[in-house]
Write a structure and sequence with these properties.
The structure is a homodimer. The first copy, chain A, has helices at about 25-30, 70-75, 120-130, 135-140, 145-150, 220-230, and strands spanning about 20, 35-40, 45-55, 60-65, 75-90, 100-115, 150-165, 185-190, 195. By secondary structure, chain A is α+β, with helices and mostly antiparallel strands. A six-stranded antiparallel barrel of chain A has the order 2-3-4-7-6-5. In chain A, a hairpin with a 7-residue loop joins strand 5 and strand 6 (about 100-115). The longest helix of chain A has 13 residues, at about 120-130. Chain A is globular, with a radius of gyration of 20 Å. The mean pLDDT of chain A is about 95. At the A-B interface, strand 2, strand 3, strand 5, strand 6 and helix 4 of A face strand 2, strand 3, strand 5, strand 6 and helix 4 of B. Strand 8 of chain A pairs antiparallel with strand 10 (about 195) of chain B.
Chain lengths: ~230, ~230
């Protein structure tokens, strides 16, 4: 796969050694996450909305109520900045200055439009659910025409994108390695907890197979990556 | 504590029953998180940058290299939108339409300025480290004048803010409860992993006591809340 071509808008100026523009890297960071933060401008002022999203090729999708301000604003075709961030750990250095964070992030720029085609919109909703629960769309009660009308799906072709990644131990000033200060990484990760069945669940309803991939303690990013790998061989 | 007064900018229009404007609720969501997404506008275009942040009263702080585009832009005093999101779980309903996400989020609006006062800037960096490792600032090698000059601290008074929170099981259409579809919540949470000592750690360096609060498997939000509770009684 080729790389995104950075412009002044997306080129990472600070710590360029952490920057990645290859599609493979950008896609991997996106596919391992469920939540994105969408930035947009209304009357010159900045807004950021967190939302679940999914990806197909270089297109990002997200959805919500047709009544939401974000979706009404973006649906008309306005520039958006989509940020996806995995916080991977605290980096504890021997000096205050060299403390850091391990992370994987992507910033993607494009113009968001409402998906007007009903068939594309419903296929996108199916693909969204398949991101974490492949097969569930066909099990669940299908959407009514009224529900589909009340749901806006947005699509944004990625015009440009950059990933920024930090991994590994602290990098201290050479003289500081002699200090008696504990240094290293305190990792954090998103994991699944135990399923909480709906109190009104019909007795005898079986737990579907796709939830077995998401067993308690499993890392969310690893599970989403595995599912994406099976869906997009 | 009083509540933030919503205006059209911050009032939650979609699903207002999930909206909270009380300071206590907004502060609790902020204090339980380390990463915020900062939205701002340059030449009319939206940008979103993820960064670590901390709070004192109604003031949010974040920091970074004095060379970064975000900090140079915001330091001049420009409107910012700060979003903090905890993703708490997948809500699996019996219909595609009623699927949802459990989450706690805050959107805060204000104007960000560079902290010019050196004493306030260094105190803010100390407070930042105390958010997850109280006492560490005094253990680590203090910043040099050059390091302090290379670090920009920003402050943003919250002009207005809203929290949006969803918890609990799916809410299905009454007729759908009879369907043989598994329904419930698949929780997710951020937890600490096991400490990874720096490969160059001096043998015999002891693990500091504040890291015991952050033992493997402990939830990040709960730990940060506990630490904030001790710091701000």
């Amino acid at each position: 796969m080729t790389a995104f071509k950075p412009t002044p808008r997306s080129r990472i100026k600070r710590l360029p050694k952490r920057a990645h523009y290859e599609r493979e890297t950008v896609h991997a960071v996106l596919d391992a996450a469920l939540i994105a933060h969408i930035g947009y401008v209304i009357d010159g002022a900045p807004y950021v909305t967190p939302t679940a999203f999914w990806r197909a090729g270089d297109t990002l999708y997200w959805h919500g109520s047709s009544a939401s301000r974000m979706l009404r604003t973006l649906g008309e075709g306005v520039p958006a900045c989509v940020a996806v961030t995995h916080f991977d750990g605290f980096v504890l250095a021997r000096s205050g200055f060299h403390h850091s964070i391990n992370y994987r992030s992507v910033t993607a720029f494009g113009v968001a439009y409402k998906v007007e085609d009903k068939v594309e919109a419903e296929a996108a909703l199916d693909a969204f659910m398949a991101k974490f629960a492949p097969g569930r769309w066909a099990e669940a009660r299908p959407p009514t025409p009224k529900e589909l009308k009340g749901t806006t799906v947005l699509r944004m072709e990625i015009d440009e994108a950059a990933a920024k990644i930090r991994t590994g131990p602290p990098i201290d000033d050479e003289a500081d390695y002699a200090l008696p200060v504990w240094a290293g990484v305190l990792p954090v990760r998103m994991v699944f907890g135990a399923l909480e069945p709906d109190p009104r669940l019909n007795p005898g309803t079986v737990v579907p197979g796709y939830l077995k991939d998401l067993a308690p303690g499993t890392a969310l990013d690893e599970a989403l990556k595995r599912i994406a790998g099976r869906a997009k061989p």
